[in-house]
Each structure stands twice: as C-alpha cells, then as structure tokens.
Amino acid sequence: MITTISQLMERAKKRGTQKIAVVCAHDEDVLRSLRKAVEEKIVKPVLIGKTKEIKKILEKYSLKLNAEIIECDDDAKSAEIAVRMVSENKAQMLMKGLLPTSILLKAALNKEWGLRSSSLLSHVAMFKPEHYDRFIILTDAGINIAPDVMQKKAMIENAVKAAHKLDIEKPRVALLAAVEAVNPSMQATIDAAVLSKMNDRGQIKGCLVDGPLAMDNAVSVAAAKHKGITGSVAGKADILIAPSIDVANAIYKTLAFLSECQYAGIVVGASAPIVLTSRADSPDSKFNSIVFASALAVK
Fold first, then answer.
1. For 275, phi and psi rounded to 5 degrees?
2. pTM as predicted
3. Pairing outcome for strands 93-96 and 274-275
4. Phi-psi domain of 120 (left: phi exceeds 0; alpha: psi -120 through 50; beta: other)
5. Tens digit of each residue's pLDDT (9 = 90 or more) over 156-183
6. Model confidence at 299, in pLDDT bands (50, 70, 90)?
7. What are phi and psi of 34, to 5 degrees?
8. Please, what is the Cα angle at 9 between 259 and 83, to 5 degrees?
9. Domain residues of the chain, as ranges?
10. Domains 5-117+270-296 and 122-257 belong to one CATH topology
C-alpha cells in the first residue's frame, strides 16, 4: 500500500514520462510546480496560453521545462485545444492554469470532443497528516455542490478507484454527518444509511461503507470506542464522503492550512485525470497533484 508522497512519486516515475496539457499556462505557481515534475521525468508539459507571459515567467524563475508552447489568448479556446489533445491521446492528463474552473469543465464535458465517461466527475483530494500512518482521501471539495444519494454513490466509486491505484485493496469509506444516528430531519444521515445498505447488498463494490459517522468517529479509533461505535470503518476510514461541497471544502482548507499535511487534489470520473487545485494551494501541493494524476493516468 502506498502511504507517502515519495512512494507515490516512485510509482509515477515507473510509469514513464507522460504528457500533460496545461490550460492557460501563464500562471506562476502552475509553472513552478511543473519544474520538479519535469526534473523527475514524470511529465512533459504542453503549455497552452499567452506565450509572452509564459516565457516571462519561465525566465523570471529560470525554469527549464523544455515544453511545447501553443499561443492562445482566449480561455475557452485554450481549454478546447488542451482537451482535444487529451481526447486524441496526444496527452495523458489535463491541468488547470489561470482560468475559471467552469470554463475548463465545460470543455472537458463537451459531447463531441470532450473527456466524458459513464461516471460523474468528482474532486478527489488525498491528505497525509503527520500523525497518520496512511493517506486519507476526501471527496468532493470542488465539483458537486449538493450531491443526492446516487451522485454520492458515484463519488464513492470514483474515490474507490483512486484508492485501488494506491494499492488500498478494500478501502474503508465513511459517510460523514454531524451525528451517528439516522435522523429524518438530517438528509445526510438518511443518505448514509441507504448507501451503507447498498454496499451490504453488493450495489457498491470493492470497499467497505459505513455511516452516518461524525468526523471524529471516522478517523479516531479512540473517539469511536469512547462513543461505543463499532464496525470495520469506525476510526479507520480511508475515504471520507462529505455530505456537501461546503463541508468538504472546509475540511480540505482546514487540513491544508492548519495542519502539517502533504496533500494533492485532482478531478476523476473523466476519461483522463484533471489536475484541479485552488489558486491558494502551494507549488508543492500542485506538484503532488501532478504526481497523483500521473499515477492514475491511462497511458
């Protein structure tokens, strides 16, 4: 089982250098994050965007990416060029630069030349807290605002596929809520109960699902024991399914900014992974996200 960023990087390196199409690449943090990925021979970038600005940033930071640069000063057209490259297998993954997420996703979901698959798109973040012995996967902090029960099922399946790529054979999935008891007034608890039963009946495969579980009882064995909560997931969750984007985003930002934690975030569910990070994320986290996408990409 992969439990550190270093191990994940070694996995990505073993897969060989892959092409990454960067949309609106005239972004300092994005270009800086690519440097290490290029040095480690994990990716070869294709930079789509404003050529003068890209070259200015490369010169400012002495970045030697040996990248192809495609001139484009229009956000939507830049996204189309990059998505078409991935769709035609001229690149194995996509990365968001300096443009709104909505424009990138609209291109990715284009019916004619996009990256649609049978799955729902969802954001998957992985965290390695300093005191934790493994990764924690969190979904969905960036795409689905208020998922219904079937969308949550798809989110689970996407996250489980990512966990399998980390060699977590039977990931433990916790459905988060404010309380552990099913309460008709709290939709998150009802959804959790339904999804847990679907897992019991084989409708959600390759994992163990339990909920509703509060955050403490999902990640702390001591907290679960103190509350008398038993089961194979309690206190040992590998995957956290948040009830809404605001809950997931709050957890994401708390772990990212208030803890000693390595993390990465990508969009899955398309035919290729999409590196989609917050503007406030550090170059290190963007690099980690490139590594994560590289480990998941289909060559």
1. -80, 110
2. 0.94
3. parallel
4. beta
5. 999 999 999 999 999 999 999 999 999 9
6. low
7. -75, -25
8. 95
9. 5-117+270-296, 122-257
10. no
Residue 120: DSSP 8-state? P
| 44 in Cβ contact with 69 (< 8 Å) | no
Report, as an integer, the average pLDDT of 63-84: 96
- CB contact at 8 A, 78 and 100: no
Domain 122-257, architecture per CATH: 3-Layer(aba) Sandwich (3.40)
Q: What percent of the chain has pLDDT over 70?
A: 100
Q: What is the pLDDT of residue 119?
A: 83
Rg value, the chain, Cα:
19
* Fold observed for domain 5-117+270-296: Rossmann fold (3.40.50)
Q: What order of strands is seen across the sheet that includes strand 68-71?
A: 68-71, 43-49, 18-23, 93-96, 274-275, 261-268, 122-129, 136-139, 239-241, 172-176, 208-213
pLDDT tens-digit map of 211-267: 999 999 999 999 999 999 999 999 999 999 999 999 999 999 999 888 888 899 999
> Within 10 Å of residue 247's Cβ, how many Cβ atoms?
20
**What integer pLDDT is reported at residue 282 of this predicted model?**
80
Q: Spell 212-225 as b/e; 16+ CB within 10 A means b.
A: bbbbebbbbeebbe
DSSP H helices in 42-186 = 51-60, 75-87, 101-108, 149-165
Contact partners, residue 5, CB within 8 Å, separation at least 6: 128, 262, 264, 288, 291
Which whole number is the average pLDDT over 68-94?
Answer: 97
C-alpha–C-alpha distance, residues 37 and 43, integer Å: 6
Q: How far is CA 228 from CA 195, 213, 221, 239, 276, in A?
A: 22, 12, 10, 21, 39
Task: Pull the structure tokens for residue 203.
Answer: 């409708």
Closest CA to 238 of 140, 144, 159, 157: 159
